[in-house]
C-alpha cells in the first residue's frame, strides 16, 4: 500500500434527499449525511467525526437510529447491489456491527428503515416493483417475515414500529396506509383503509395504537387501530399585510398526547413525483416530529407549525408558526422561504428543533424562543452556515490566507476558512458560475459566469466587481502563482490578462475542442492546457506559441497538472488511465482499474499525488508512480469529483464534487520523504474596506457616540428625578407608617387588657368544669363496679354449663368409636369372601384368553399368508399402473410448462398494454390540456393583435392630424407676422404725421379759426381709422392666442403620453432581449451538458443516466407534448397576421399620400388667398398715401405749410414732385373734406368685410407654443401720443 495518507478533517455540505437525514445522538451531537459519509457534528464545540460509507458504495439512500441511540443503520447501493450496514455508535471510532447483503428475495434498494423499541429487530422497505416489507432479527441476520406491501407500483415513503410493541408495524405511501402485526412467523394486516385513499407522505406514532399522518394536500389524520378519529386541514391564505399565514381548520373529536419520536423521511423526488397531481396551493406535509407538548409538522415551503394539546379539551390546536428567514445575501430573498422542509428532529431535552430542507440547508430554533414570540411567527437560524445546494463547479485557494473559494450552479460564490471551519463570505448572483480562482494574496477573485468574466474585490463584508470581460461561459480560470497574470478559457481559446493594467496580453489558440483544464508552472513562464479534443499543449507566454504538444484523439482529458520542476505533465481523461507526458511524448500510462479519473493534483514537494474518480473516491499515491496497484483509496463523495486542490504548504487536500459537498483532508507522508513545509510567516489578517464604507462607519460611530452621550445625560436626569420622587415618597411612607404604628400600639394595649380579663374568666370556668368532672367520674365508677359483679356471676354459671356439655360430648364420641370399629370388622369379612370368589373367576377367564390367543395366532398366520399373495399381485398391478401414470405425468408437466410460459408472456403483454394504455391516456390528457391552453393563448393573442391594430390606426390618424395642424400653424404664423409688421409700418407714419401737424398748429396759432375745424376733423378721422385697424384685428388675435395655448397644452399632453408608451415599448424590448439572452445561455448550457454526455458514449449505463439527467433538467412537462403540428399552426397564424398588417400598412400609406396631395392643394389655395390679401393691403396703402397727399395739398392751399416739413416726414411721404401733377383747380374746402371722409368710411367698411371673410376660412388656427404680445398696450401708447 501507499505511504501517502489522507485523513478527513471537515465537510461543508448536506445530502438532503437521503431519507431520515438528520437526528440527535445526544444533546450536543447531531448526525447527518454528507457526501458518502455520515457526520457526527458537535453543535457547541464545532468538531466533526466521520462514519465512512462502505467500500465501492454508490451513495446512501436511507438512515435510521435505534431508540436507545446505540446503533445506526445505513442503506446503500454497493456495486449495483443493495446493502444495509449497522454501526455501533457507542464505540470510538464507530465500528461496523453487522452487514446485511445476502438476500433470498428480489430487491433493488431499501428506501426506508426503522428499529424496534428494544433495538433487536429491523424493519426495511424495498423499492417498487418488489415493494417488500422485511422484518429482520438483525443480530443473527435472520429474516423473521417478509410481505409484499403493494402490487400497483405505488411508492412507499415510510415504515415504523410502534414505540411500545415490537410486533406492530405501520407503512404509509401513495394511496396506502397499513397497520400490520407480526404473529406466527408472518406479517398480517390488521386494519383496512376506509374512504378515499390519500397520498400519505409522513407519519408518527402517538401511542400504542394511535398514529398521526400527513398528506400532500395539507391534511393531518389521527388513526386509532386503523380507524380515523380526527382530521385537520392546513390552508394557505393571503392576509392583509401581504405575507402568507397558515390557518388551521379543525374538525375533530379528540386528540391525545404525542410522544417525542422522530419520523423517518421518504425520498423527496418520490414525494414530488407522487404529489404532482395535487393542488399547488395546498401545503404538503413532508415531515412530522412529536414532542411532549404536541407535535411539529412541515406546512408548505419554508414553514413549520407547532401543535399543542389544550388543557381542558382533548384535542390539539396550532400554537406557533416557524418560518425560514429571508436571506439578505441572496439575489432573490424570497427564494429562501420557498424550500421544502424534509426532516424535523427534536433534541432529547426538547430544547432545540432541527430541520433539513430540499436545498441542502440545516436550520435550528430554540423552543424557548417560540414561547417568547407569541402572536408573531418565529424564525429559524442556520445550524452551521449556508451550504451549497447544487454541484460545485469551481474551487480555489490562496497563499496568504486560509481561504477556500467555491462557486456552484446554485449561482452563489462562497469563501470558507479551513482553519476555523467557518463561512467567511457568501453572495448569490443572477447567472451561474462555472469557474473561480483566488489571487495569492487572498484579496481578489476572478469568476467565470455564464454571461461574463468578472474580476472582484473581497471586501470585509461584500464581494464587489471592478472589471468585467465579455467572456461567456468561462469553464476554467486561474491566477498565476505570482498573481501578476490570470488566464481564462473561452471555448477553445485561452485569454491571458495582466492584473496590473487589466489588459489582454495574449490569446492562445490551437485547441479544436473545449478546454477542460489549465495549470501554471512554478515560475509562471508556461501554461499547460488539456481539452476534450485529446490534446495537451504547453504554451510559452513570452512568445504566445506552443512549445510541446501531445494529441490523442481517442481520449477526452478531464484534468492536467505539472510537476514542480515543470518537466513532466500528468493528465487524466476518459480512457481510464493516468498519463505521464514529457517532451510531447507519453512516457507511461497507469491504469485506473475500471474507473474514470476526473481530477488530479500533485504536491508542491513532488512526493504525493492525489486523483479523484467518477465514483466519488480519492486515491492517494506516492511519486514516482508505482507500476502495481499501490494506492490508498478513500470514500469521499456521492458523485463525480469535479475539483481537487492542495494548499500551498501541502498540509491540506481540498475536494469538491457534483453532490455539492466540500471536504478538507489532512495529508502526510508516512515515510517522511521530502521536507515538511512549515510557514515562516503567519496568515495575513488584513482585509479590504472601501473608503465610503469607512466614512459611513465613522459617521455611524460618531452618531452613536453622540446618541450615547445624550442617553447618558437623559438617564442621569431621569435618575435624579426618580431619586427626588422616591425620597419624597419614602418620607411620606415613613410618616404614614409612624402614625399607623402609634395607632397599632394603642390597639395592642387595649387587646392586652381584654386578654387578661378573658384569661381570668377562662381560669375560673376551667376550675368549675374540673370539679364537675371529678364528681361525675366517681358516680360512674360506682355504677360500673356493680355491673362488673353481675357480669362475673353470669360468667361463672356459663363456665359450669360448658363443662357439663363437654363431658356429654366426649361420652357420645366414645360410643360412636365402638360402633364404628364393630361395623368395620363385619364389612372386612364380607368383602374378603367376595374377593376370593372374584379371583377364582379371574383365573378361569385368563385360561380362556390364553386359549383364544393361540387360536388367533393360527388364524393370523393363515390370513398373513393370504394377504402376502394378494399384496404381491396388487403390487405388480399398481407398479405397471404407476409407470403409465409417470409417463403421462411427465408429458403433462411439459405441456404445463409450455402453458405457463405462454400464460406468463401473455400476462406480461397484458400488463405492458395496460401500462401503455395508461401512459397514452395520461399523454392524451396532457395534450388536451396543452391544446386548450394554447387555444386560449391564440384567442388572447388575436384579441391583443386586434386591439393593437386599432390603437395603431388611431395613433397614425392622430399623428397625421397633428402634422397637418402643425403645417397650417406654420403658414398662419408667417401670415400673422407679416400682418403685424405691416400694421406697425402703418402706425409709425401716422404718429410722425400727428407730431408734424401739432408743430404746424402751434406755429399757425393766430390764424387757427376755420382750419382748426379741418384739423379736428382730420384728427377724428385718423383716430377712427386707427381704432378700426387695431380693434378690428385685436379680438381675433387674442382668440387665436388662446387657441394656440390650448392646442399647445394638448400637444404637450399627447407628447408625454407618446413618450410613456415609447418607454413601455423599450422596457418590453429589453425584457424580450433578456429572454433571448436567457434562452441563449440555456442553449449553451444544454450544448455543454450534451457534449459532456458524448464522453460516455462507450458506457451505455452512464450515458443513459446522463441523458435522463439532461431530460429532467431541461425538459418541462409542457415540452413533452409533440410541438411540430403546433409550430406549423403558429407559423401559419404568424404569416396570416403579418399579411394582414402589411395590407393595412399599404392602405395607410395610400391614405397618407392622398391626404398629402389634398393638403398640398389646400396649402396652394391658402397661399394664393394670402397673396391676394397682401395685394389689397398694398392698394390700401397707396390709396392712403394718395389721400395723405390730398390733405397736404389742401393745407398748402390754405397756406398752412409755409415751413419745410421735418426730414422724418419726408422719408415716409411720397415725393412732392409726384403731387405736382395733381389738378390745380380748387374746390370748396368743406365739400372736399366731406368727400374724403366718405371715401375713407367706404374703404373701412370694405376692409371689415374682408376681415370677416378671412375669419370664416376653415382650419385657420394660431401657432401653438408662442404667446404673442397684447396689442392693448400699443393702443394706449398711441392714444397718449396723440393727446
Spatial separation of the terminal alpha carbons: 128 Å
| Stretches with pLDDT under 50, minimum 5 residues | 238-267, 272-280, 1006-1011, 1201-1227, 1258-1283
How many separate helices? 10
Percent of residues in beta strands: 25-35%
Structural class computed from helices and strand pairing = alpha+beta
Strand order within the widest beta sheet: 18-19-20-21-22
Topology, number of strands: 58
Based on Cα principal axes, name the global outline.
Answer: extended
Computed over alpha carbons, the radius of gyration is 57 Å
Which sheet architecture does the biggest sheet show?
Answer: 5 strands, antiparallel
Q: In percent, how helical is the residue content?
A: 40-55%
Oligomer: single chain
Average pLDDT works out at: 82
Protein name: Cilia and flagella associated protein 57
InterPro entries: Beta-prop_EML-like_2nd (IPR055442), CFA-57 (IPR052993), WD40/YVTN_repeat-like_dom_sf (IPR015943), WD40_repeat_dom_sf (IPR036322), WD40_rpt (IPR001680)
Domain EML-like second beta-propeller: 393-667
WD repeats: 385-426, 508-549, 634-667
Amino acid at each position: 500500500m501507499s505511504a501517502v495518507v489522507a485523513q478527513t478533517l471537515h465537510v461543508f455540505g448536506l445530502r438532503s434527499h437521503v431519507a431520515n437525514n438528520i437526528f440527535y445522538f445526544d444533546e450536543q451531537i447531531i448526525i447527518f449525511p454528507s457526501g458518502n459519509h455520515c457526520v457526527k457534528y458537535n453543535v457547541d464545540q464545532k468538531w466533526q467525526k466521520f462514519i465512512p460509507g462502505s467500500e465501492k458504495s454508490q451513495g446512501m439512500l436511507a438512515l435510521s437510529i435505534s431508540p436507545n441511540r446505540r446503533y445506526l443503520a445505513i442503506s446503500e447501493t454497493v456495486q449495483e447491489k443493495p446493502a444495509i450496514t449497522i454501526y455501533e455508535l457507542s464505540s470510538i471510532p464507530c465500528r461496523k456491527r453487522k452487514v446485511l447483503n445476502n438476500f433470498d428475495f428480489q430487491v433493488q434498494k431499501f428506501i426506508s428503515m426503522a428499529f424496534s423499541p428494544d433495538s433487536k429487530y429491523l424493519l426495511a422497505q424495498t423499492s417498487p416493483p418488489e415493494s417488500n416489507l422485511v422484518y429482520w432479527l438483525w443480530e443473527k441476520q435472520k429474516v423473521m417475515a417478509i410481505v409484499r406491501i403493494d402490487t400497483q407500483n405505488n411508492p412507499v415513503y415510510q415504515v415504523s414500529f410502534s414505540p411500545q410493541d415490537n410486533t406492530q408495524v405501520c407503512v404509509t405511501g401513495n394511496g396506502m396506509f397499513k397497520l400490520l402485526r407480526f404473529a406466527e412467523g408472518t406479517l398480517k394486516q390488521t386494519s383496512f383503509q376506509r374512504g378515499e385513499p390519500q397520498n400519505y407522505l409522513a407519519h408518527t406514532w402517538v401511542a400504542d395504537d394511535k398514529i398521526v399522518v400527513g398528506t400532500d394536500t395539507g391534511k393531518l389524520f389521527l388513526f386509532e387501530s386503523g380507524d380515523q378519529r380526527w382530521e385537520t386541514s392546513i390552508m394557505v391564505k393571503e392576509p392583509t399585510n401581504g405575507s402568507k399565514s397558515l390557518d388551521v381548520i379543525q374538525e375533530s373529536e379528540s386528540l391525545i398526547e404525542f410522544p417525542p419520536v422522530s419520523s423517518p423521511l421518504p425520498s423527496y423526488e418520490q414525494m414530488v413525483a407522487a404529489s404532482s397531481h395535487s393542488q399547488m396551493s395546498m401545503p404538503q406535509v413532508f415531515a412530522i416530529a412529536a414532542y411532549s407538548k404536541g407535535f411539529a409538522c412541515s406546512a408548505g415551503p419554508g414553514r413549520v407549525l407547532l401543535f399543542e394539546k389544550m388543557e381542558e379539551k382533548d384535542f390539539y390546536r396550532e400554537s406557533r408558526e416557524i418560518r425560514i428567514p429571508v436571506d439578505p445575501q441572496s439575489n432573490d430573498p424570497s427564494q429562501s422561504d420557498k424550500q421544502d422542509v424534509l426532516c424535523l428532529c427534536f433534541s432529547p431535552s426538547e430544547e432545540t428543533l432541527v430541520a433539513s430542507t430540499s436545498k441542502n440547508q440545516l436550520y435550528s430554533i430554540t423552543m424557548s424562543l417560540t414561547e417568547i414570540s407569541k402572536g408573531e411567527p418565529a424564525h429559524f437560524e442556520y445550524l452551521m452556515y449556508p451550504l451549497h445546494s447544487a454541484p460545485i463547479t469551481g474551487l480555489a485557494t490562496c497563499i496568504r490566507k486560509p481561504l477556500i473559494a467555491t462557486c456552484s450552479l446554485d449561482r452563489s460564490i462562497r469563501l470558507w476558512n479551513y482553519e476555523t471551519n467557518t463561512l467567511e463570505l457568501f453572495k448569490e448572483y443572477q447567472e451561474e458560475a462555472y469557474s473561480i480562482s483566488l489571487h495569492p494574496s487572498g484579496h481578489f477573485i476572478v469568476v467565470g459566469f455564464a454571461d461574463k468574466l468578472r474580476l472582484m474585490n473581497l471586501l470585509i463584508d461584500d464581494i464587489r466587481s471592478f472589471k468585467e470581460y465579455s467572456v461567456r461561459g468561462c469553464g476554467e480560470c486561474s491566477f498565476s502563482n505570482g498573481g501578476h497574470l490570470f488566464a481564462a478559457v473561452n471555448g477553445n481559446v485561452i485569454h491571458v490578462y495582466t492584473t496590473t493594467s487589466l489588459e489582454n496580453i495574449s490569446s492562445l489558440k490551437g485547441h479544436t475542442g473545449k478546454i477542460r483544464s489549465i495549470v501554471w508552472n512554478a515560475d509562471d513562464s508556461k501554461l499547460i492546457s488539456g481539452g476534450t479534443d485529446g490534446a495537451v499543449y504547453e504554451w510559452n507566454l513570452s512568445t504566445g506559441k506552443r512549445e510541446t504538444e501531445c494529441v490523442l484523439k481517442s481520449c477526452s482529458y478531464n484534468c492536467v497538472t505539472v510537476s514542480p520542476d515543470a518537466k513532466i505533465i500528468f493528465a487524466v481523461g476518459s480512457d481510464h488511465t493516468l498519463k505521464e507526458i514529457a517532451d510531447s511524448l507519453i512516457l507511461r500510462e497507469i491504469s485506473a482499474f475500471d474507473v474514470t479519473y476526473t481530477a488530479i493534483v500533485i504536491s508542491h514537494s513532488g512526493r504525493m499525488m492525489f486523483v479523484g474518480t467518477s465514483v466519488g473516491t480519492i486515491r492517494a499515491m506516492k511519486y514516482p508512480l508505482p507500476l502495481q496497484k499501490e494506492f490508498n483509496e478513500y470514500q469521499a463523495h456521492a458523485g463525480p469529483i469535479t475539483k481537487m486542490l492542495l494548499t500551498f504548504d501541502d498540509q491540506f487536500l481540498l475536494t469538491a464534487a457534483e453532490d455539492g459537498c466540500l471536504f478538507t483532508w489532512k495529508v502526510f507522508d508516512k515515510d517522511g520523504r521530502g521536507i515538511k513545509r512549515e510557514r515562516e510567516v503567519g496568515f495575513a489578517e488584513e482585509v479590504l474596506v472601501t473608503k465610503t464604507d469607512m466614512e459611513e462607519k465613522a459617521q455611524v460611530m460618531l452618531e452613536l457616540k453622540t446618541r450615547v452621550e445624550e442617553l447618558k445625560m437623559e438617564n442621569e436626569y431621569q435618575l435624579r428625578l426618580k431619586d427626588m420622587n422616591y425620597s419624597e415618597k419614602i418620607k411620606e411612607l415613613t410618616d404614614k407608617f409612624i402614625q399607623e404604628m402609634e395607632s397599632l400600639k394603642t390597639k395592642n394595649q387595649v387587646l392586652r387588657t381584654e386578654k387578661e380579663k378573658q384569661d381570668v374568666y377562662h381560669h375560673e370556668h376551667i376550675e368549675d368544669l374540673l370539679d364537675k368532672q371529678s364528681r361525675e367520674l366517681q358516680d360512674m365508677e360506682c355504677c360500673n363496679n356493680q355491673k362488673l359483679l353481675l357480669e362475673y356471676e353470669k360468667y361463672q354459671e356459663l363456665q359450669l354449663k360448658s363443662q357439663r356439655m363437654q363431658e356429654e360430648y366426649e361420652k357420645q364420641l366414645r360410643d360412636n368409636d365402638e360402633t364404628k370399629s364393630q361395623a368395620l370388622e363385619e364389612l372386612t369379612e364380607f368383602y374378603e369372601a367376595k374377593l376370593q370368589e372374584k379371583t377364582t373367576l379371574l383365573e378361569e377367564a385368563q385360561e380362556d384368553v390364553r386359549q383364544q390367543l393361540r387360536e388367533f395366532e393360527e388364524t393370523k398366520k393363515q390370513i398373513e399368508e393370504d394377504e402376502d399373495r394378494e399384496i404381491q399381485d396388487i403390487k405388480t398391478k399398481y407398479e405397471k399402473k404407476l409407470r403409465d401414470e409417470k409417463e403421462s405425468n411427465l408429458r403433462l408437466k411439459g405441456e404445463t410448462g409450455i402453458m405457463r410460459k405462454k400464460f406468463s408472456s401473455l400476462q406480461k403483454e397484458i400488463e405492458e398494454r395496460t401500462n401503455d394504455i395508461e401512459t397514452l391516456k395520461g399523454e392524451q390528457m396532457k395534450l388536451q390540456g396543452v391544446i386548450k391552453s394554447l387555444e386560449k393563448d391564440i384567442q388572447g393573442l388575436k384579441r391583443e393583435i386586434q386591439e393593437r391594430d386599432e390603437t395603431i390606426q388611431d395613433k397614425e390618424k392622430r399623428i397625421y392630424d397633428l402634422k397637418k395642424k402643425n403645417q397650417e400653424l406654420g403658414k398662419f404664423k408667417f401670415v400673422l407676422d407679416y400682418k403685424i409688421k405691416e400694421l406697425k409700418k402703418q402706425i409709425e407714419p401716422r404718429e410722425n404725421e400727428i407730431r408734424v401737424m401739432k408743430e404746424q398748429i402751434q406755429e399757425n396759432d393766430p390764424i387757427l379759426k376755420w382750419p382748426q375745424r379741418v384739423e379736428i376733423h382730420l384728427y377724428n378721422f385718423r383716430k377712427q381709422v386707427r381704432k378700426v385697424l387695431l380693434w378690428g384685428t385685436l379680438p381675433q388675435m387674442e382668440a387665436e392666442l388662446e387657441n394656440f395655448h390650448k392646442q399647445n397644452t394638448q400637444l404637450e399632453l399627447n407628447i408625454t403620453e407618446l413618450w410613456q408608451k415609447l418607454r413601455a415599448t423599450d422596457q418590453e424590448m429589453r425584457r424580450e432581449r433578456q429572454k433571448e439572452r436567457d434562452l441563449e445561455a440555456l442553449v449553451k448550457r444544454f450544448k455543454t451538458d450534451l457534449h459532456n454526455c458524448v464522453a460516455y458514449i462507450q458506457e451505455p449505463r452512464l450515458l443513459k443516466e446522463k441523458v435522463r439527467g439532461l431530460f429532467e433538467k431541461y425538459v418541462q412537462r409542457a415540452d413533452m407534448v409533440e410541438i411540430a403540428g403546433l409550430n406549423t399552426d403558429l407559423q401559419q397564424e404568424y404569416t396570416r397576421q403579418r399579411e394582414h398588417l402589411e395590407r393595412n400598412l399599404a392602405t395607410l400609406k395610400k391614405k397618407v399620400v392622398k391626404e398629402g396631395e389634398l393638403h398640398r392643394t389646400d396649402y396652394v389655395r391658402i397661399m394664393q388667398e394670402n397673396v391676394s390679401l397682401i395685394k389689397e393691403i398694398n392698394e390700401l396703402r397707396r390709396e392712403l398715401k394718395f389721400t395723405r397727399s390730398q390733405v397736404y395739398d389742401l393745407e398748402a392751399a390754405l397756406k398752412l405749410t409755409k415751413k419745410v416739413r421735418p426730414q422724418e416726414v419726408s422719408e415716409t411721404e411720397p415725393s412732392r414732385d409726384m403731387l405736382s401733377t395733381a389738378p390745380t383747380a380748387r374746390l370748396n374746402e368743406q365739400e372736399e373734406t366731406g368727400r374724403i371722409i366718405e371715401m375713407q368710411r367706404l374703404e373701412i367698411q370694405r376692409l371689415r368685410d374682408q376681415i370677416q371673410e378671412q375669419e370664416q376660412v376653415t382650419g385657420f388656427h394660431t401657432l401653438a407654443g408662442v404667446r404673442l404680445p397684447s396689442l392693448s398696450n400699443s393702443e394706449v401708447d398711441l392714444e397718449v401720443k396723440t393727446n
